[in-house]
Amino acid sequence: EGKYLTRRIDDNTFINFADLILNDPDDALYNIARIRTSLAVMKDGQAVFTNLEKVYLYRYVFTKGITSDDLIDLHDTDRIGDREIENALRQMILDQKNPDYCRNTLFQNKLLWIARGYAQTGVSYCEISDTTLVKKDASVHMLKQVHEIMPSIYRETGVRIRFLAAIRRIPLMLIRDQIDTDYLQDNLTALRAVSVDPYVAGCDFVGEEMNDIRQLQPVIRELVRIAEHDPTFVIRIHAGENDSLKDNVANSIRCVADALAPGQKMPHVRIGHGLYTANLKSEKGKQLLSDIRKYDAVLEFQITSNVRLNNLSSLKKHPLKQYLHAGVRCVQGTDGGALYGTDSIDEQLSLEKMLDLNHEEMMLMRNAEKEVAEQAERDFAYKTEQMERLCAGRTVEEVLNSRMAAEEQITGDLTAGPRKYSTALELETLIRELPQDKVPVVLAGGSFNNDQRTTKTNEHGRQMIDELLDRLDPAKVFFVIGHKLNGYEQYLAEQNHGRFEIFAIVPTMLGRHEIKKLMQYGLSVRISIEPTGHGLYKSFAYEIFKRRPSVLIAFDGNSAGANLIQEARNGRGGCRIFVSSHARALKAKAQSIEGYITMFSRECPQTEEILYRISVLADTEENKKGTAPQQVV
User: Fold this and answer.
1) Phi and psi, residue 597, nearest 5°
2) 248-258 and 283-294 are packed helices; what angle lies between their axes, rounded to 10 degrees?
3) Are residues 380 and 494 in the same domain?
4) Which of 123, 244, 571, 574 is most buried as measured by Cβ atoms within 10 A of its Cβ?
5) Is position 363 within any domain?
6) CA-to-CA distance for 352 and 186, rounded, in angstroms?
7) Which of 62, 97, 132 delimits the end of a domain?
8) What is the dihedral of CA 198, 199, 201, 205, to 10 degrees?
């Protein structure tokens, strides 16, 4: 209750888009334009960030749609008025007459049109990450459909489509409350059963990079066991996507290597992104380069995704050239081209022009892609032969179903690291509603770094907080901080002495030490739906920035802090944002949205401006109380 922003469309909404076009040709152009707008990812990387959840929901209608009970005959194709849609409809009519395609399911038709799209851009091999392959009740049926249609698709297009079984490192926010705690065990059990299928190339850790990959070491160990029996098995890990977890690339490779059985060869390892690591010129960085070469890992770069997800605001230190010159195999990817409105041609042009790659560097990437694709085709042929031996007169569906039935359930805890506790239970007595008659002042200075970096306070920052506590009115203002109680946030709590209400927005799970600190200072608490601190910025947006006027004072932070600033900028409530020029990552974010942020520093503290802006908002709220009738909620 109260956790989610209510939307008119969610993942339980059924919309027949074809009906809006085919059964209403007079308004088809109007409806097509509106449908496209609802599915579009805005080209402005700053704007898309806050709307990504909505885009996920709308596109879910297409990616996970089902066949309508009321099928529509294809007719009046020339009355639509949109050439692209009309051409597609004509091809669909031809497909209905084609014996290879006339009995296609909705899923099979999507594969057909994906392959046609790739063929137009010169792509002959692709892998699609899909969570269906780790679901016991759906994976075999999906692969049955793949085997039925892919030979015909390959004959027409020359495009080989294979799949990576997508494992969510953290369940999607939209479905998190519906996820059983044993979902990882179930995922791996299902994957072991279907991993023998030639269309299963391997696995892919997907989802927002908000946790240390070492927490998933037990999961990686199980995947390496699959690769022990299938030397073609690919282990793909999204890592190095943001600067909060710069050791994730190195730790991903190390986790796979440490899980190898005696005498086992390193499986195919691919790292999605590899954007943020230790400085590649440092000893730590040189060791990373050595390990990547030693284990022949491949790095995939998706520049559009990095920009759209707010993970790349400057190209000056992009590491691609360094990797190429160090002999690391690098390829380009889209990270979900349809979602981010890009394709392989756009990505190639972006890498070449934005990173100023020369011909030799582009050829290094081209040769790496050729090697990966050729190896994948050899692996497909090998697994096809193995599957034929397994079948021995049975169908693929029968083989996979028997394996699924015989597969022993994986048990035990598949997460590593210190034990975490439910904040809803442990902090139950501290949970409060945010005051509606006061101005929220969000103070970021301790909770928005990674675990390896601690915010250190300085004298001018402490003086700013002292002045805020001395000169603001507790009857009109309250403070909101993160969950760690470090740095400036801890200083605020220590110096408050009960004068102001201070709220901490905390993740669903915390360690015992963090819980103890929150209880020690007697703060009020709001429980986020995010399981880790890296995603808390979303809850700040939902609780504050999207709903009401506010002030954000950001002393320190890395990508999590930058995301907080972006959400404050995008929020409809109106937020006055003040950012320390001494925080390098936050300063870079502030410069990328210049004009909306006021910088402060030791030389120019801006304390008076901050006090003035808070007072204006407080007076505005006070006037509202005097003129508007009270509402009973």
Assistant:
1) -130, 140
2) 40
3) no
4) 244
5) yes
6) 42
7) 97
8) -140
CATH code of the domain containing 209:
3.20.20.140
3-state secondary structure of 166: strand
State which amino acid sits at residue 383. K
- The answer to whether residues 467 and 583 belong to one domain is yes
Tokens of 294: 């030693």
The verdict on 3 and 145 lying in the same domain is no
Quote the Cα angle for 64-163-251, to 5°: 110
Tokens 């080209």 map to which residue?
Answer: 43
137 and 65 housed in the same domain = no
The tens digit of pLDDT for each residue in 71-129 reads: 888 877 888 889 999 999 999 999 999 999 999 999 999 999 999 999 998 899 999 99
Task: Give the model's confidence band at 370: pLDDT under 50 very low, under 70 low, under 90 confident, else very high.
Answer: very high
Specify whether 572 is located in the same domain as 603: yes
Nearest 10 degrees: CA dihedral of 533, 537, 542, 545? 150
Instruction: Report the 10 Å Cβ neighbour count for 296.
Output: 12
DSSP state of 26: G
Are 170 and 532 a contacting pair, CB within 8 Å?
yes
CATH number where 433 lies: 3.40.50
CA 452 to chain centre: 22
Same domain, residue pair 550 and 608: yes
The Cβ of residue 9 has, within 10 Å, a number of other Cβ atoms equal to 13
Which pair of structure tokens corresponds to residue 351? 């890498």
Entry pTM: 0.81
Question: How far is it, in rounded angstroms, from Cα 162 to Cα 133?
Answer: 12
**Strand segments (E) across 426-559:** 439-444, 477-481, 502-506, 509-510, 524-527, 550-554
> What's the full length of the chain, in residues?
633
Is residue 321 within 8 A of residue 301, CB to CB? The reply is no
What the block records as the tokens of 589 is: 């974010």
Q: Are 562 and 313 in contact (CB under 8 A)?
A: yes
Is residue 551 within 8 Å of residue 575, measured between CB atoms? yes
CA dist., res. 525 & res. 310, Å (int): 28
User: Same domain for 347 and 451?
Assistant: no
488 contacts 446 by C-beta, under 8 angstroms:
yes
What is the pLDDT, as a whole number, of residue 12? 64
Q: Tell me the residue range of the domain where 489 lies.
A: 421-627
Does residue 226 contact residue 261 with C-beta atoms inside 8 Å? Answer: no
Whether residues 260 and 286 fall in one domain: yes
Q: Which two tokens stand for residue 217?
A: 């070491």
* 406 three-state secondary structure: helix
DSSP 437: S
**Strand, coil or helix: what is 547?**
coil
Buried b (16+ CB within 10 A) or exposed e, 209-246: bbbbbbbbbbbbbbbbbbbbebebbbbbbbbbbbbbbb
How many whole angstroms separate alpha carbon 607 and alpha carbon 615? Answer: 12
**pLDDT per residue as tens digits for the range 438-484:** 999 999 999 998 766 788 999 999 999 999 999 999 999 999 999 99
Instruction: Say which amino acid occupies 166.
Output: A
pLDDT above 90 covers what percent of the chain? 59
